[in-house]
Structures
1.
Amino acid sequence: MNDEINVKKQLKISLPIAFESLINILMTLVDTLVISTLGITELAALGAMSVIINIMQMSIQTINVSNNTLISKAIGEKSYDKVKLTTGNSIIMTILISIITIIVIYIVQPVFPILFEVEKISITYLSIRLIGFIQSSIVTVLSGHQRTIGNQGNIMWLRIFAVIVNLILDLIAVKYGYGIKGVAVATVIIDTILSIYLLIKSRNTVKYKFVKSYFMDIFKLFKWNFIERIASKVDNFIFNLIVARMGNLEYAVHVILIQIANIYESFVQGFGDGITISIGIASGNRNKKYMNKVKVVAKKLINISSIIFPIVSFIIAIIVMNISLKERELQIIFFKILPLLIIETYVIMSGTYYFSILRGIREFKFLAQRNCTSSIWKIIIAIVLSYTPLGIVGVWIAHLVYELIQKYLSKCRYNQILDKGDDIELV
């Protein structure tokens, strides 16, 4: 197999996952753009509850990553029954955690409007979204399963369909005066349809039978991945809380910027997931030649993408600003932060090489420690700079520092593994 074919093969794996991840985040962006037409009050309420929903999804995303890592290794081992049982036990864990999450959020949700200083309509939006949380969680895990077993393109087109239908339903909801409540209902409808479809599609590749050994394998990875993600979610919660208390203008701009950041982060994450799958398969079949080729190809792709993607992010940012932030005061704030956003795009993409390989060789403990360290620095710097004349710009400087620390620590760990003489191919 020559290098060109290997590059094409990796692109065939990575690009559909990247675009599917991008399309998936567009679901939230569509909601945000439609709600932004109603006013700053509604936009702030949606932004605040999006933070809470992201925290709710943390455990499910953790299960998804753990499951994908394990089944990619099982594919490399050619143990297809293990693939079925691993995902089946992941779904069992997903449903249990989803039920617990719904109960906890429902109990504590009255405090959220006070924390974020937004209107109580935010509680209505969140309560409706809770109805579809189990369906959304099932979609997350089964989509990951389908991607890992090679159905990347199918899932990408499924997401495109979902975004189009979601946009149509959102516009209908706003046109007929249902506002933010109608947007929430539309999302629940889409999640329900997708979950039913994926349950049917996966019936021959997933076995829903509790097996303690498989359940515990998932949990072992889950616990470190959970720590990694909870560190990020907690610092994002505080990050948003700091900006929310600066005023509606700053927070309205912040909500849009976060959505743009989520766009490129989701694409980069999806691109990296494709590399992680290849690394996981190589570690499962213990193929050193394939492992080395994956690393070489990944490096080439990341280097090219690190140049192209910041340019694309800039174009997307300008388009989104012209749609959602038409007032001059909002645009002034936006342009102050935009350079930091573009630099951050480069940092994240260039660091994806190390992030993806470390996940592929199951370095979840290190990734958890890395996130805790970088999150602490992010919070400290954001709080300090928020009290300076920099204001919201200072808070976003903290966000950039966070990404720089993550890249630096990941690169150091990767080099440390090689310097120790450890056989990265067989980890």
2.
Amino acid sequence: MTNPELNHDAPVAADDRRTEPRFEANGMVVLRVEKVSIPGRLLDVSEHGMRVEHMYAALASSMVLEVERDGVRRTARVIWNRIKNEGVESGFYLL
């Protein structure tokens, strides 16, 4: 299934240890931690993961949460967080 919001021709620079290719993506997601809903912006995706920009600095590595995009919910584990001037970036592994 092809998603028009994914740019499969533009892999993201390999500046980390991931073994799967990442592809730029754009779109809104909702991170759900217990009863808290956190809006976020999808930055890139791979077969088993994604990188999301958001404003919720309380996420911690190893947390398990739900990610909702276009009405579809997936369970994910927080792998890393990076605090930036404009918010937080987190990497997720989809379970």
